[in-house]
Design goal:
By secondary structure, this protein is an alpha/beta fold. It is 35% helix and 19% strand. The strands form two sheets. A seven-stranded mixed sheet has the order 4-3-2-5-6-9-7. The structure holds S-adenosylmethionine.
C-alpha cells in the first residue's frame, strides 16, 4: 500500500483510541487510504473549494481528501471518541482541518463561503436518506453545495440513478434527478469496511443543476411522488384518488393515462402534473 501521509494506518488509530464500532452510529470504517484518496480525486477542484465531511470517524476519508490537496475541510462528527484521532490529523495539516463535534442532522451549511462547497461522506446508514433528502430540498435553489459525494448501500445508490420503468425507480430517483445529475463513481465490496457490513456499497456523486430540469414547486412534487409511490403497483387513478380531486380528468389534462402506474411516469410528467395541481 502506498503511503498517503506519515500518520499511523487507520487500523492502528482505531486500536489506539479504542474506537469499537457502534451500530447505533452506523460505524463501518474504511481502512484503505488508497481507496479514500481515489474517492477524493473524483472532485476536480479540491484545492479551490471548501469541503464538508459528515462523520469522519477515525479519518480515513479525511486523510484521503487532505493528501489530495483539499484546501480546507470542515468535519462534523457526533462520536466524541473520534475527536483526538481527528486532532492528530489537523496537527499534521496545520490550518486545513476544522473539527466540529456535533450532529450532522442539525448542522446548517453556511452559504457565505466564497469558495464552492463540496460535501463528502461515508454516510452513517441510519441517517443517510434523511440527510440526502435535506440536502436535495434546501429552502432555495441552487443550494449552498456544488456536489455531494456520498457512500451508500449499493441498493440505495442504484435507486438514485434509476430510470422510469425499472424496479429501482422511485421517489428518491425523481427528487435526485429533478435538480441534479447523479452518477455512480465507484462500487465497493463489503470487505473494504471494518467491521464488514452485510451489503456492498457504492459512491454516488451528485452534481447540482443551476435550474431544475423542469419547472415545478418542490413541496407539491415531493408530496405527489410520495403518494404515487406509496402504492407503486396500483394504477395512478387509484393511488392518487385521495390526493387529487377529479383525478382522472387531472391526469388526462397532463397527458397521463389514468391506468399508468407510479413507475411509468418520467420526471417531466410528474413536474407537469405538479404544475396542474398547483393551478387548481
Ligand atoms: N468516514 C469514516 C470512514 O469512512 O471510515 C467513518 C464512516 S462511518 C460509516 C459513519 C460516521 O458517521 C461515524 O464516524 C459516526 O460516528 C458518524 N455519525 C453517525 N451519526 C452522525 C451524526 N448524526 N452526525 C455526525 N456524525 C455522525
Amino acid at each position: 500500500m502506498a503511503t498517503i501521509d506519515t500518520l499511523p494506518p487507520i487500523s492502528a488509530v482505531i486500536k489506539k483510541y479504542e474506537l469499537n464500532a457502534k451500530k447505533s452510529l452506523g460505524q463501518n470504517f474504511l481502512l484503505d487510504l488508497n481507496l479514500t484518496a481515489k474517492i477524493a480525486r473524483s472532485c476536480k477542484d479540491l484545492a479551490k473549494s471548501t469541503i464538508i465531511e459528515i462523520g469522519p470517524g477515525p479519518g480515513g476519508l479525511t486523510r484521503g481528501l487532505l493528501s489530495e490537496n483539499a484546501k480546507k475541510i470542515v468535519v462534523i462528527e457526533k462520536d466524541a471518541r473520534c475527536i483526538p484521532a481527528l486532532t492528530e490529523i489537523s496537527e499534521f495539516y496545520p490550518g486545513r482541518l476544522e473539527i466540529i463535534k456535533g450532529d450532522a442532522l442539525t448542522y446548517q451549511i453556511s452559504s457565505d463561503t466564497e469558495l464552492p462547497v463540496h460535501i463528502f461522506s461515508n454516510l452513517p446508514y441510519n441517517i443517510g436518506t434523511t440527510l440526502l433528502t435535506k440536502w436535495l430540498d434546501p429552502p432555495e435553489w441552487p443550494p449552498a453545495w456544488s456536489t455531494l459525494t456520498l457512500m451508500f448501500q449499493k441498493e440505495l445508490a442504484e435507486r438514485l440513478i434509476a430510470q422510469p420503468g425499472s424496479k429501482e425507480y422511485g421517489r428518491l430517483s425523481i427528487l435526485t434527478q429533478w435538480r441534479s445529475d447523479p452518477r455512480i463513481i465507484l462500487r465497493l465490496s463489503s470487505k473494504e469496511f471494518f467491521p464488514r457490513p452485510k451489503v456492498d456499497s457504492a459512491v454516488v456523486q451528485i452534481s447540482r443543476l443551476k435550474e431544475p430540469r423542469f419547472p415545478a414547486k418542490s413541496s407539491t412534487l415531493t408530496k405527489l411522488v410520495a403518494k404515487a409511490f406509496n402504492q407503486r403497483r396500483k394504477m395512478l387513478r387509484t393511488s392518487l384518488k385521495s390526493h387529487i380531486p377529479n383525478v382522472v380528468e387531472t391526469l388526462e389534462k397532463a397527458n397521463i393515462l389514468p391506468t399508468n402506474r407510479a413507475e411509468d411516469l418520467s420526471i417531466e410528467q410528474y413536474c407537469n402534473l405538479a404544475k396542474i395541481i398547483d393551478q387548481k
